[in-house]
Amino acid sequence: MEILLSICLGIGLSAACGFRVFVPLLVMNIAALSGHLHLVHGFEWLGSYPALIAFSVATCLEIAGYYIPWLDHLLDTMATPAAVIAGTIASASVIGDMSPFLKWTLAAIAGGGSAGLIQGTTVVLRGASTATTAGLANPVVATAELAGATTLSLVALVAPLLAVLAIAGLLFVLIRKVLRRANRTQPASIRANTA
Questions:
Q1: Each residue of 125-140: b (16+ CB within 10 Å) or e?
Q2: DSSP track, 3-69
Q3: DSSP track, 85-149
Q4: Is residue 118 a part of any domain in this protein?
Q5: What is the pLDDT of residues 88-105, one digit of tens each?
């Protein structure tokens, strides 16, 4: 059961990296420094005071950058690979008691994958926001992403299974919307043949 909870914790923190790269790492750092999170061997540096300073500065810069209209799109292009890497590290840092090959495979696929899915969704959302509101709604999107990163990080620490269920529900709703939209944009002749 402990390994399942650590995997769920890793996936929850990784998905939060998809909203904001550094917020979950800062939350992990604070939780580790306060004794509420145990990091596996080799990742103790995530719970150090130098990491606290680095993650605090990076988090402030990342949050501020998403409120600058032209910079938010530049950050999105850089944040996508960074989110996958951060998600992989976040997962690997809490998953213990398994072979290194299995641990890193799981961290890359489940952790990096969930971070990449969430990050990809936020990029599409920001693009739609820019296209429909000329970027005027982007600060609202940025605030929602920040709230998502913070909330999901905290929920993952407190109730890892709940965090994974919330991620699954979010992905279900998003995929359903995408499929509905794709179905509406198909010509009527194609829809009739698929029905």
A1: bbeebbeeeebeebee
A2: HHHHHHHHHHHHHHHHH-SHHHHHHHHHHHHTTS-PPPTT-GGGGSHHHHHHHHHHHHHHHHHTTSH
A3: HHHHHHHHTT--SS-HHHHHHHIIIIIIHHHHHHHHHHHHHHHHHHHHHTTTTHHHHHHHHHHHH
A4: yes
A5: 999 999 998 889 999 999
Place of tokens 């904001």: 20
Q: Positive or negative CA dihedral for 171, 177, 181, 183? A: positive
CB neighbour list of residue 74: distance below 8 Å, 6 or more residues apart? none
**CB contact at 8 A, 66 and 85:** no
What's the pLDDT at 29?
A: 97
pLDDT tens-digit map of 30-49: 999 999 999 999 999 999 99
Q: What burial class does residue 170 get, using C-beta atoms within 10 Å of its C-beta: 0-12 exposed, 13-18 middle, 19+ buried?
A: middle
Which pTM was predicted? 0.85
Q: Which domain holds residue 40?
A: 3-185
Residue 149 lies in a domain: yes
Does 195 reside within a domain?
Answer: no
144: tokens are 């929602």
Task: Calculate mean pLDDT across residues 52-67.
Answer: 94
Distance CA 170, CA 112 (A): 17
